Amino acid sequence: MNVENRKLSKEGAFYFFTSIGNYTGESATSIEDFLKKIEHIDIKSIEFHCHRGDFQKWVAETIEDKELAEQIKKLQDQNLTGEKLRSQLHLLVRKSIAVCG
Q1: Which of 18, 29, 30, 52 is the least buried, fewest Cβ under 10 Å from its Cβ?
Q2: DSSP one-letter code for 21
Q3: Residue 53: left (phi > 0), alpha (psi -120 to 50), or beta?
């Protein structure tokens, strides 16, 4: 099932943290919303979630995009940090939306 254009419930949304217990106050309720949020979210949050595999898991299980999840896994394996990580993640998600849209 393709949920790219569908808003997710609060339970399905992605909640951004900078570390365990430190919620940023930001969440994403669609893949497009996720793309917008990663443009400005604290880089510590992107690093935290990427290295834990949280983005990969959410994309695979909630968005149901196994191909994008696999690309995020490869990105995670590169151990990128900072703005390089943000830009690569943004590029992957943007390309995925363009292909599906």
Answers
A1: 52
A2: T
A3: left
Establish if 3 belongs to a structural domain. Answer: no
* Residue at 9 is within a domain: no
Residue 4: inside a domain = no
**Smallest Cα–Cα separation from 11: which of 24, 37, 29?**
29
- Residue 15 phi/psi, 5-degree rounding, is -105, 125
Amino acid at 66: K
Cα angle, residue 82 at apex, residues 76 and 88 outer, rounded to 5°: 50
Q: What is the mean pLDDT of residues 90-98?
A: 94
Instruction: Tell me what pLDDT residue 6 has.
Output: 62
More confident residue, 2 or 30: 30
What residue spans of 1-101 are helical by DSSP H?
31-40, 43-52, 54-58, 66-77, 82-100
Q: Considering the domain boundaries, does residue 89 fall inside one?
A: yes
pLDDT digits (tens, 9 = 90+) for 70-90: 999 999 999 999 999 999 999
